[in-house]
Every structure is written in structure tokens, then in C-alpha cells.
């Protein structure tokens, strides 16, 4: 179909009679919304806590982007959205009485009747290093949606900076944990997080990996605290809920991608292979080449320590292999120098030692290649 055909079809479509299918319906829908908002706002207690206490609130957290994971400062910065859902029977209505309207969004009742309709929203805080006392969820900040069944859904965007617990004992196969919590200052007899809920990373998220790490999984758990630090597992047996606070904890587990490690390990393995091949040479050139390999190992060690995690208790495996490789290179230089010196000065006078040195040299070469295979197994 060419461009002329498309043009003809467009002209014919313009010649068709136009009928307004939406004007009257939109006006009727608007009138029903305004009437619903006025009827709901007649209840003066909508901004007070729910009539049925405790309020059961289901949390749902979505991570959209991890901005930073600082291994030295042990902090993480991420962006996401927190959604809370709860039932408020004061906000129920019969759809048949209001033109089959099933939901109200804040963009509707906030724009047309913000002074008439304000509802109760739980006071929720986040254990954020940058703002520990700020209430993230409030009527003015949240995106609200109310359904005819009384279900309220509140969503707020978050930028969180929180602490992490770094342990690189298993480097490069280590995993790191970053934890933050949401809580309310309201007592557990007024407010409780449900055990149902969760956390998710959308497929269209811009990035959930940072530096050498990628998000492996996210754990969510609901618990109660007594006195601010005592964890109460069985809340049903706790007599005075007024002394408890409900919190929901999120633990983000990061797994190392080993991009930098593979580069460093491959460089070290190539140096090790060169050392073991050069060790076969029976000439003085082998000593010179081994000395050059030793210098290359020193430069690689400087680069290696610059790339390793800043806080480690025990030496990582790649460092241990590098130390053994440097020791092996020094011993091979000494052994090759001894063999060359012996053959030049004592091969004739001490013929009975030649066979022993030859056997020892063969064992040294086999040991070098055994170490090469072992280092490959350790590094990769």
C-alpha cells in the first residue's frame, strides 16, 4: 500500500460524520465523583486511626535502581517505591449508587476536593542514614488509590542510604548484605505490618548492579520489637501490645560478579605459566628471564592490592597464590643458578653428583607444572 492510498483513506475518514460519544458520559462521571467525594467527606473522623484496630498494613517494596555500593564506607544508596495497602471500612461505597465508580485516585479527589476529603495514612519511617526521623509516608507525599471495598493503596518514592555488613573472607565468591527497615512509631495495638507482602525488582529496572556487584536476592521479614531492641517472635502470647512496635526488615544480598577478579587471575596465571616454562631452560638466560618475571609479579602485586576490597581479615586466595608464585620464582632463580654453576665448574670433578642433580632438576620441573595446575584450580 503506497502513500497515495494512505492519503486517500485519511481524507475519507475526515469526511465521515463525527459523533460525540464521551462528552455526556464524562460529565456524568465527573458529577458522580464529586457526589461520592462529598458523601465520603461527611465523616469527620477519616483522618483518625481506623475503627478496627490494630490496622493491618501490607508492605510491598520495589527496587528501581542501586546508585552506589561503597565497600570502604560500607554504605548503599538505592531508589525504589514503597506501597502500603490496608482496609478502611469508612471508605466503602456502593458502586450502583455512584455510576459504577469503582475507585478514586488522589489525582481526582486531591485536585477537586483536597479540603473536603482527607484520609488516615499510617505514619511510616525508614531507617535511612540521611534522614532517620522523617516520615516518608504522609497524605501530602503519597500517591493514593481508594477502591469501593475500602482498600487503600498508598505509594511513595524513596531514596535510601543505609549501612551494609561487608565480609570478604570468601572473596571472590563473597556475598554482601545491606539492610534497612520500615517502621511506625505507633504501638502494635494500633498498627501492625502483615506477614504477607514482599519485594521485587522489575524487569525494566534501569540497573540493579553496581561496580563489581549484582543483586542476588532480597529477603523481607516482619517482626516486633519490645523496648526498641528485643525481638518478639510470638506476638500472640504477648499480653500488652502497647509495648511493641511493628517493623518490616529488608535485606538485600549482593553477589560479586568477579569481573575485576577474572582479569587479575588471568594475568597472574599467565605470569605463572611463563615462570614454569622459562624454568626448563638450562642456560643463564633463564635466570634473567625469571628476574624479569619477578619484577612483573611485583608490579602486578601493586595493582592487585589496589583492586582488592578495602577491608579483609584473612588474605584472599589470589594473594596467597601470588605470594607462593613469588617465592617459587626466587627459588627457581637460585636453583637454576646453582645448576649452571655446578655444570660449569664441577661437572668433571664430581661426575657422581651429575645424575642426582639431573633427577632433582626433573623433579623441580614436574613440581613447577604441578603448582601451575594447582594455581589454576585455586584461581578459577
Automatic annotation (TrEMBL):
One of its GO terms (molecular function) is extracellular ligand-gated monoatomic ion channel activity. InterPro entries: Neur_chan_lig-bd (IPR006202), Neur_chan_lig-bd_sf (IPR036734), Neur_channel (IPR006201), Neurotransmitter_ion_chnl_CS (IPR018000). The lineage of its organism: Eukaryota, Metazoa, Ecdysozoa, Nematoda, Chromadorea. GO terms for cellular component: membrane. It is found in: Membrane. Its main location: membrane. It comes from the Eukaryota. SUPFAM superfamilies: Nicotinic receptor ligand binding domain-like (SSF63712). It is a multi-pass membrane protein. This is Neurotransmitter-gated ion-channel ligand-binding domain-containing protein. Residues 35-184 form the Neurotransmitter-gated ion-channel ligand-binding domain. Keywords: Membrane, Transmembrane, Transmembrane helix. The chain crosses the membrane at residues 260-281, 288-306, 318-335, 356-379.
